[in-house]
Prior knowledge:
2 copies of one chain form a homodimer.
Chain A: H1 3-14, H2 17-22, E1 32-33, E2 45-46, E3 52-57, E4 64-68, E5 71-74, E6 76-77, E7 82-86, E8 93-101, E9 104-106, E10 113-116, E11 119-126, E12 143-151, E13 156-164, E14 178-182, H3 191-194, H4 198-207, E15 215-218, H5 248-265, E16 275-280, H6 282-293, E17 300-304, H7 311-315, H8 320-323, E18 326-332, H9 333-337, H10 347-356, E19 361-366, H11 373-383
Amino acid sequence: xxxxxxxxxxxxxxxxxxxxxxxxxxxxxxxxxxxxxxxxxxxxxxxxxxxxxxxxxxxxxxxxxxxxxxxxxxxxxxxxxxxxxxxxxxxxxxxxxxxxxxxxxxxxxxxxxxxxxxxxxxxxxxxxxxxxxxxxxxxxxxxxxxxxxxxxxxxxxxxxxxxxxxxxxxxxxxxxxxxxxxxxxxxxxxxxxxxxxxxxxxxxxxxxxxxxxxxxxxxxxxxxxxxxxxxxxxxxxxxxxxxxxxxxxxxxxxxxxxxxxxxxxxxxxxxxxxxxxxxxxxxxxxxxxxxxxxxxxxxxxxxxxxxxxxxxxxxxxxxxxxxxxxxxxxxxxxxxxxxxxxxxxxxxxxxxxxxxxxxxxxxxxxxxxxxxxxxxxxxxxxxxxxxxxx
Amino acid sequence: xxxxxxxxxxxxxxxxxxxxxxxxxxxxxxxxxxxxxxxxxxxxxxxxxxxxxxxxxxxxxxxxxxxxxxxxxxxxxxxxxxxxxxxxxxxxxxxxxxxxxxxxxxxxxxxxxxxxxxxxxxxxxxxxxxxxxxxxxxxxxxxxxxxxxxxxxxxxxxxxxxxxxxxxxxxxxxxxxxxxxxxxxxxxxxxxxxxxxxxxxxxxxxxxxxxxxxxxxxxxxxxxxxxxxxxxxxxxxxxxxxxxxxxxxxxxxxxxxxxxxxxxxxxxxxxxxxxxxxxxxxxxxxxxxxxxxxxxxxxxxxxxxxxxxxxxxxxxxxxxxxxxxxxxxxxxxxxxxxxxxxxxxxxxxxxxxxxxxxxxxxxxxxxxxxxxxxxxxxxxxxxxxxxxxx
Lengths: 390, 390
């Protein structure tokens, strides 16, 4: 065997070519550490096809699997007890995942953790062609503030995160519009700034002068039969989905506690014309119900992967048609390929009918993404420039 | 067998009396979910002795262990493949821990996660008799802000967290003193507000009028041979300990980038008399080195479980003795029982010698705690009222 051939064979073995054989596919060997790994961790990795490769030392284990996008992939053990394996190509953007070790579902110790699927667990980032719009750049940055407050409605302490735009600390005479931005079911008030990158999306849009600066309030919309979860420092009962009172319960807290608290503590323009609400999935459904019932409170409506508003809805929502300046509806393209039940009609047709009825609407489809965060990052990026323009 | 006896036996079995037998100890069966569990999770639990009981479903596993305070405890499997077991009694306060499943070290899926020991991993809270001082109460709350900034010294984006006290948003003419507060080795800029509860400690002290309100800046003091870790959205090489340049590298960034950035963006009183530095462990050692070299920059010095300052140090630190208004040194009592090497002399004797040399000093010992967060929460609680008093 000559040197060249031996080296090629060795390279194939060392770079994991054996897994290609195992999974009977050709895996492109250009894996790099995920951008949301813990400091110093090589694994998990992602390649140019969007495959996720994980690795964990578990010398005593008999079966280890990677569980991502509802598919489990078997890992393979080497002579040192280290298990390695990879998934099929994933869509661009962020995905939750976990490992199974001899029947135990656990977070991957290599990844950072995010709250979704009703748990803190592993996340992975498949580099997206458009990732520049949520990249961390040397531009002026706003701040994301942890805000603790007492809710009279719930007789408990609650927490929200508040994004204040660049310049907020300096222009102390200036007042700003406010977007109330909600997470989805099984997520919480950390989602939009952690995995959603809401702050970075806004910073970049503002730096390019593509949106007016505004405040974003990210609160916890989860609701259970007995009221809101205690979202800090306390155990709580498992959430149902959709949770009892998911719209009405949160609506009371939003209108009675959150909005007055925000208007009292931040330099807001505290009127209907300078207030928007948007949300993803369950948060989109909440946005739909809450804004239909309160067109005197909000001017702009964003529903991301959470249904749409029909002309029939207008009949039971006095003032909505006249007072709302924009109804924005979006979906990931893969959601429309395989529509889930309960969308309440075709969202594109509903939104076109609203436009034909005289409303200002915008329908956006995120290319090649599903019911996941890349759809919602892009939705915020498309929605923000359309609101508070005058 | 009569009813009463049968019920007693059943109760013993159901409440886990079998584990008492396994571990040949009497375990008090008053376990409650930990206060830092994930929402809806029953386990991990803590009892009145301070034992930690964990539980995880792992039907295919052969060996599962709880790893806490450097001791591994075997769990026991039931007929459903659920493993349960508990530790010996732990000290009051916060502890990092992990699970071992057939040789894999993983976070417990039941707990919240905290950055320490150079990883995001599980944490548990043993209720402390004095936990009221960091409890979440219905008092006016400050905010913890995520602040992104560009560092000229490092040519990179960095992140810190900034606590602004209650009233900061309203009293827009008022200016505040600043404490620069550093984490320990293997920790990061999230530690003091997450597991340290720095914000809650300050909110409660201020509500009781026990301290003047001040700003706290919590940055990342970790340093590697090639400079600072990239602390956001990027992988990084494993940290050494103590990291190369752990004091000098951070000192440059603190003096050249962080302090000017804070003074430019917050309503600080930007002079030596209104600036303090404190830190725990490695952060205490950094505080020692940086304040000895810069008595023109800081007035108050807090060293928590991180050495002390000797009269010999004063000889090489021009101006320190004259300009520093307080040297505060603290330890957990268990650290003094079993002193680690490298303390640089007896910290109590060193601090008394400083006092005899004419400096204002304070030596504090946290009762029955080790090199852990309960010692440092208490240290902040003792330190804060002593600074910025005039």
